[in-house]
Amino acid sequence: xxATIVEGKALLETVIASVxxxxxxxxxxxxxxxxxxxxxxxxxxxxxxxxxxxxxxxAFALLATTAALVVGILVMTGG
Length: 79
Description:
mainly alpha
C-alpha cells in the first residue's frame, strides 16, 4: 500500500494561483502608483480633467488591491 504524500495536481494549481495573484496584485498596485504620479503631474500642468482621470484610475486600482488582499486573507483564514 502506497500513500500519496503530495497531491501533484493540487500543488500545481496552488503554485499557478500564487504566481498569478502575486503578479496581478503587484501590477494593479503599480497602476495605482502610476495614477497618483500622473495626477500630480497633470495638476501641476493645469490639466484638471486629465488629473481627475488619473486620480480615478489610482483610486480604482487601490480599491482592487485592497479587495484582492481582503479576499486573500479570507481564503487563508477560512472565513
